[in-house]
Task: structure prediction
Amino acid sequence: MPTDIKGPAIFLAQFAGDAAPFNSFKAITKWAGSLGYKGVQVPTWDGRMIDLKKAAESKTYCDDLKGTAKENGVEITELSTHLQGQLVAVHPAYDEAFDAFAPAAVHGKPKERRAWAEDQVKLAAKASKNLGLHSHVSFTGALAWPFLYPWPPRPPGMIEEAFGELAKRWKPLLDAMDENGVDVGFELHPGEDVMDGTTFEMFLEKLKGHKRCQINYDPSHFVLQQLDYVEFIHIYHERICAFHVKDAEFNPTGKQGVYSAFQKWTDRAGRFRSLGDGQVNFGAIFSALAQHNYDSWAVLEWECCLKEAEQGAKEGAPFIAKHIIKTTSKSFDDFAAGSTDTGKARRMLGI
Result:
C-alpha cells in the first residue's frame, strides 16, 4: 500500500523565546496550529518547551503534553537533542564555544559535560517512548572536524581512530534508544564528523550497522557542500527516518566558493534561506521520498539570513502542504492494460 508524508510540521528551536506566544509549550503550539502546522518537533534543551527528566520519568506528564498539543491542533513529531548530541564528542578547540550548550555546573569540565550530554540522550530515549514516538533527531558531535582539509597531512590512522571513538561513544546511546523502540536520525551537518553520505557510512561501519543509526535528511546542508541531494535519497532512503525541510542557495563568485571565506551569513556564497527563496528543488525531493515510501514527517527548520522568522514560519506551512504528494494506489495507464492473459502475453512475445 502507498504511504504518504505527514505534515506540515515545524521545529520549535528557532522560535522559542521569552516573549509570548513563544515562551511556553501551550502558547507556541497554539501559534503553530494557527498557521496550519500539524506537528511540532521539540528541542529538549529548552525548559520552556519540555522538562526532559520529567518526561523520561512520567507517562502522565507526557500524556498531558500530548493533550496540550492535540488541543491546539498539532502533535509531537520527534524530540531533538541536537545540542546535547553535539556535546557527546567535542574537540578541545571547541570546548569553550560549546560550553554554552550545557549547564554552568559543567563548564570547563569536558568529561562532566560529556557525561551530562550522554545522560540527556538516554533521558530522551525514555521520554520518546513515553510520548509514543519512534524517531528522534540529533547531532553526532565531532572529534576530527578541525582536520577536515588534509593540510598539513593527517597522520595515518587518525580519521579511523576518530570514527572508532565516535562510534564507541554512541553505541550505548543507540542501544538505549533501541531498548525504547526509537530510531535516531542524525542530521548530516558541517561541524559534525558525520556530514555527508560517505562519513555516515564510515560511522555506520564502526557501529556494525546498528539499526537505530538513521538519518535526519536536510537538503540545505548538501546544497552548501555541492552534493547531489536527490540522488542521496535514492541511495540512503532505507536509513532516512526524519526530514528537515530547509532551503539554501550556493552562489560562488570569483572571490569565494564552498568555504565562504569566513564571511557573515549574508555575505557567504552558501546561505540558508526561507522556503521558496533558495535553490532547493523540493518538488524532486518530495517525489523521491514518496517513491521510496517515506511516511514520517516533513518538518520546517527555519533558518534564513534575510527574512524575518515569523514571516518564514507563516509561509512555511502552505509551502510544505503544497509539496506533499498523496501517493496513488493505481497506475495512470491501468485503464488500457486489460486483464492478465498468460496465453496472449506468450503469443505477443512469440513464445
Summary: The chain has a mean pLDDT of 96. The CA atoms of residues 39 and 301 lie 12 Å apart. The longest strand covers residues 75-81. The chain has one domain: 6-349.
